[in-house]
Write a structure and sequence with these properties.
By secondary structure, the chain is an alpha+beta fold. The chain has 19 helices and 30 strands. The protein binds adenosine-5'-triphosphate (ATP) and magnesium ion (MG). One of its GO terms (molecular function) is ATP binding.
């Protein structure tokens, strides 16, 4: 099972994985840990990440970036409309009313949904993780901004499905950062102690998020979040772009905004300049060659001028900081540390603003770029059974109050109720009780639209079906479970009808309660992992608000549950029946559509793979041409006749030209065939070279082997006691074999020395090696025969020097390298001949 965390950033994404050694942010095929959130479409394939980023200008209309914030938004959404004008690619309204992206792909006009775009990006990140882990990746945790609404979250969830991922949790970016901070801290206050409050600030490319978290040993609770959803690095880039558009416009009479390519280039250069200014306070040049109409432009900028221009942006830094403190009801003194992450917090003035507000230095202990992804991977490790991690509980929150609205027969009109107030703990479930005779609809919505960075407060309609009256015609009690799940998404997760079976004429318990419709049984959902004291507190608070005293049963599926009767009404029996719920979610992709997108993604992955293979085949030809041409005039020169070399060089040149002309765009097989054709000429040369490299060593090894056996033979003949246990006939066999091998070797050496290197060798290295092995197989068993043990009187049994042949001669080939016998015999004929062996 995979344990992967993905930070889906507006500008760039990061992937972290959990391995035995810990959490690791992984690099893509460019050895870069950040992958640009960019997808380029071409006539034959898609490029995703760095390969797409390099096409931003050259393939501007079909290179898609900056789409993160279109998730879950209608085309008519004011945010989408405002963004539309500054994009190089085209946005369109899809039949569902949602935002689509129009590009040319495979020579066809195609509209893709935002879910598909993020799905493509996720496909790439998934591949990156798979390459690092060397196994398929399915389970993951993906981050989203903490201010995302349900529609945006559901849209990202759909994207994960399109990429074939199983998202265990959509985690808020700020919460992922808090987890990455807290899980390693050894010195957090104990559970009963006052928690440690830490502020996390993340200013990325598109948005600014602040959260306050309370830490105790083994747990974190998000107390409050605040944000400026449009304050990020790109706003600072825009300031510079505006400035230079005007400056260059005047100085060089250029209408930069009329040419998207020039504008995009200016954006790139301004971002670079902005980063330079973070490290440099001096004047910095802004030069772009051949910027527009073949004109080179130049200007200057410095930090103080830049700060002046960004005054309005910097003024927006404070509000969210103030807001989190107010919401959490904490003072600046209560804050233990302020941790900053996100690329834009590198702007010194942003950092200063934050530290000035809190009256303390900001901490940069976390990796500003990778903290979100690392937090995601940690969360995935916690959720995955495949990994053992330190226990750490996370209580997140609901950023906007959520209410339910319904038609109330009792009050003859609409009623509503805030089911989750702002900053309520999440994930969380509550059970509400309604009295109804027929199916009814619950309309969920964000009840504070003013603070919502999204134009539509509607969340969804939930139709509770199959509601029938009691047998006596009175209203049935319907229990509805509402929840904000682990992804931060609201739903009416289940509903059940409580059938009351009266056994006598006792008063029906709930009929007396006129306000039953509002009764909320705020019960901790057992399905959620949270059993924290905070939740118990909330439960207690909610119970206090509620007048309903009856114990609510957890809604186990199709299980008939006997309700514990209340003291006064002991004779009432109840059973529960699950009710179906029909959801009408805002901007939800239908199942069929989603399946189609999954299928299409699969097709595109396949197409990219085929195209990559085709390109690899082409590159292989090109590489071979360059490699061979180079070697033919260097290391291979001796191994090919002049005629052959000339004709081969010519062929290589022809192939090179072909690659730039007719061969520019051919099917994969053509390149494969071309390479085979070239290799047929190159291979023998290469082989001759290779042989000549290996041959001397092979001969040398054989020679050493022969020498070793001859030494033993001589020692035996000299009656060396080390070998006096050997059988004479065996020693004769060794001598004969060694002499034969010697003869064989000298013969081959002579023949080879007379042969031109441009011809195939008379003997191959592997045949020499085989000869060495053959000799060893005959001689080794004889010369390594152990000396029979001599029984010594007990007191004399001391460790003795090793006797007999030295260990290590067992495998024949390495025998030559083993320790020499102690008495070095006189040089033998073999030794005298050895120098010859180096001639080759
Ligand atoms: P978001 O969080 O909004 O989804 P993101 O995660 O892609 O976006 P980050 O990677 O955190 O964003 O930050 C990217 C931004 O940080 C860019 O605007 C980039 O120009 C800016 N940035 C990076 N380094 C520096 C620097 N040294 N000085 C100023 N800005 C920088
Ligand atoms: Mg980010």
């Amino acid at each position: 099972m995979s344990v992967v965390g993905i930070d889906l950033g507006f500008q760039s994404c990061y992937v972290a994985v959990a391995r035995a050694g810990g959490i690791e942010t992984i690099a893509n095929e460019y050895s870069d840990r950040s992958t640009p959130s960019c997808i380029a479409f071409g006539p034959k394939n898609r490029s995703i990440g760095a390969a797409a980023k390099s096409q931003v200008i050259s393939n501007a209309k079909n290179t898609v970036q900056s789409f993160k914030r279109f998730h879950g938004r209608a085309f008519s959404d004011p945010f989408v409309q405002a963004e539309k004008t500054s994009l190089a690619y085209e946005l369109v309204q899809l039949p569902t009313g949602s935002t689509g992206i129009k590009v040319m792909y495979m020579d066809e006009e195609r509209n893709f949904t935002i879910e598909q775009m993020t799905g493509m990006l996720l496909t790439k990140l998934k591949e990156t993780a798979e390459n690092a882990l060397k196994k398929p990746v399915v389970d993951c945790v993906v981050s989203v901004p903490c201010f995302y609404t349900d529609a945006e979250r559901r849209s990202v969830m759909d994207a994960t499905q399109i990429a074939g991922l199983n998202c265990l949790r959509l985690i808020n970016e700020s919460t992922a950062v808090a987890l990455a901070y807290g899980i390693y801290k050894q010195d957090l206050p104990a559970l009963e102690e006052k928690p440690r409050n830490v502020v996390f600030v993340d200013m990325g490319h598109s948005a600014y998020q602040v959260s306050i978290c309370a830490f105790n040993k083994g747990k974190l609770k998000v107390l409050a979040t605040a944000f400026d959803t449009t304050l990020g690095g790109r706003k600072f880039d825009e300031m510079l772009v505006e400035y230079f558009c005007e400056e260059f416009g005047k100085k060089y009479k250029l209408d930069i905004k009329s040419k998207i390519r020039a504008l995009l280039r200016l954006y790139q250069e301004c971002e670079k300049l902005k980063k330079l200014m973070s490290a440099n306070a001096s004047d910095l040049p802004m030069n772009i060659e051949c910027f527009m109409n073949d004109i080179d432009v130049s200007g200057t900028m410095n930090r103080s001028k830049f700060l002046e221009m960004c005054d309005g942006l910097l003024a927006r830094v404070e509000a969210p900081l103030r807001s989190v403190l107010e919401q959490a009801k904490l003072k600046k003194e209560d804050i233990y540390a302020v941790e900053i992450v996100g690329g834009t917090t590198r702007i010194p003035a942003v950092k200063e603003k934050i530290s000035k507000f809190f009256g303390k230095e900001v901490s940069t202990t976390l990796n500003a770029d990778e903290a979100v992804a690392r937090g995601c991977a940690l969360q995935c490790a916690i959720l995955s059974p495949a990994f053992k991690v330190r226990e750490f509980s996370i209580t997140d929150l609901i950023p906007y109050p959520i209410s339910l609205r319904w038609n109330s027969p009792a009050e003859e009109g609409l009623s509503d109720c805030e089911v989750f107030p702002k900053n309520h703990a999440a994930p969380f479930s509550k059970v509400l009780t309604f009295y109804r005779k027929e199916p009814f609809t619950l309309e969920a919505y964000y009840s504070s639209p003013k603070e919502l960075p999204y134009p539509d407060p509607a969340i969804a309609h939930f139709l509770v079906q199959k509601v029938t009256p009691q047998t006596d015609g009175s209203s049935s009690k319907v229990k509805v479970k509402v929840r904000v799940n682990i992804h931060g998404i609201f739903s009416v997760s289940s509903a059940s009808l409580v059938e009351v079976h009266k056994s006598d004429d006792n008063e029906e318990p709930m009929e007396t309660d006129q306000h039953a419709k509002e009764e909320e049984k705020m019960q901790v959902d057992q399905e959620e992992q949270q059993k924290t004291e905070e939740q118990q507190q909330v439960q207690a608070e909610n119970k206090a608000e509620s007048e309903e005293m009856e114990t609510s049963q957890d809604d186990s599926k199709d299980k008939k549950v006997d309700q514990p009767p209340q003291a006064k009404k002991a004779k009432v029996k109840t059973t529960t029946v699950d009710l179906p719920i029909e959801n009408q979610l805002v901007w939800q992709i239908g199942k069929d559509m989603l399946n189609l997108f999954i299928e299409n993604e699969g097709k595109m992955i396949m197409q990219d793979k085929l195209e990559k293979e085709r390109n690899d085949a082409k590159n292989a030809v090109e590489e071979y041409v360059y490699d061979m041409r180079d070697k033919l005039c260097s290391i291979y020169e001796k191994f090919v006749s002049e005629d052959d070399r000339n004709s081969f060089t010519l062929k290589l040149e022809d192939t090179e030209n072909w690659l730039y002309e007719d061969g520019e765009d051919q099917p994969k097989q053509i390149y494969i065939d071309k390479l085979t054709e070239l290799k047929a000429l190159g291979q023998p040369i290469q082989a001759r070279f290779q042989e000549s490299e290996e041959r001397p060593k092979a001969f040398e090894d054989l020679g050493k082997q022969i020498q070793q056996y001859m030494k033993t033979v001589h020692a035996f003949k000299a009656k060396d006691e080390q070998y006096d246990h050997l059988d004479e006939a065996d020693v004769v066999k060794v001598e004969k074999s060694a002499n034969e091998a010697m003869e064989w070797m000298n013969n081959k050496l002579n023949l080879q020395n007379k042969r031109s290197l441009t011809l195939d060798p008379v003997i191959k290295a592997k045949d020499i090696q085989a000869k060495t092995k053959e000799l060893a197989s005959i001689c080794n068993p004889i010369v390594t025969k152990p000396k029979p043990k001599v029984e010594l009187p007990k007191e004399e049994q001391k460790p003795t020097e090793p006797n007999g042949p030295v260990e290590g001669q067992g495998d024949g080939s390495s025998g030559a390298q083993s320790a020499e016998p102690s008495a070095a015999p006189a040089p033998t004929a073999t030794e005298k001949k050895l120098p010859e062996m180096d001639i080759d």
